Amino acid sequence: MKPRLILNSIVMLLSLNSLNSFAQAERYIAGTHYKVLEAPVRTADADKIEVLEIFWYGCPGCYTFEPILSNWVENREDDIDFVRFPGVFNPLMKVHAQIFYMSQALGILAQTHDKVFDALVPQRKTLSSEPQIVDQFVEFGMDRIEVEKAFNSFAVRTKTNQAEKLTRDYKPTSTPSMVVDGKYLVSLAGPVNTYQEMLRVVDFLTEKERN
């Protein structure tokens, strides 16, 4: 092949690559597919890309999303720090956030997370008061005294209050929502109309942070 033809071929390939990169970059647009937070929220580990799920135990959508999200979490890249975060929009959600942090404090979150979802969504329990919550966890096989102590502990109440403040910082309007690296909020809205698409936007944003 003549030098000029080789040069023209290289230029054409570079142009095509540039167009492909541009198309990929424009696939998801701020303000349409995700929101850029006005004030970034500090993440737990600055060396990793944080992907945070804002959920509510009483949310049917979160219940449906859970197995889809769990599969994504199992296959995530090593540089992603996944965090579950109980959103607090109202008093009932605050009580349910307290359940999450109580389970975390007792070291039983892995065993009770799905069970709490089951109790609230398909079983339609409310778990809106301490006696109901304690009875439910006793039914799960937990010690009543330990549950009562953890539920009312200073550490659990502090984390629950912090969750209420952080929810205001993230500014979600629904659950489930995802926050990428404390900067971008992704929710089911507009063209993002499936949970799978929501995770594709999350993947796009994590790649954006890598670059």
Automatic annotation (TrEMBL):
UniProt xrefs under CDD domains: DsbA_DsbA (cd03019)
Signal peptide interval: 1-23
Main location (coarse class): periplasm
Domain Thioredoxin: 13-207
PROSITE patterns for the chain: THIOREDOXIN_2 (PS51352)
Entry GO CC: periplasmic space
GO MF: oxidoreductase activity
Domain of life: Bacteria
Subcellular location: Periplasm
Residue runs in coiled coils: none
Pfam family, one: DSBA
The entry's keywords: Disulfide bond, Periplasm, Redox-active center, Signal
Gene3D superfamilies linked: Glutaredoxin
Disulphide linkage map: 59-62
Alphabetized PANTHER family for the sequence: THIOL:DISULFIDE INTERCHANGE PROTEIN DSBA
Family: Belongs to the thioredoxin family. DsbA subfamily.
Name of the protein this chain belongs to: Thiol:disulfide interchange protein
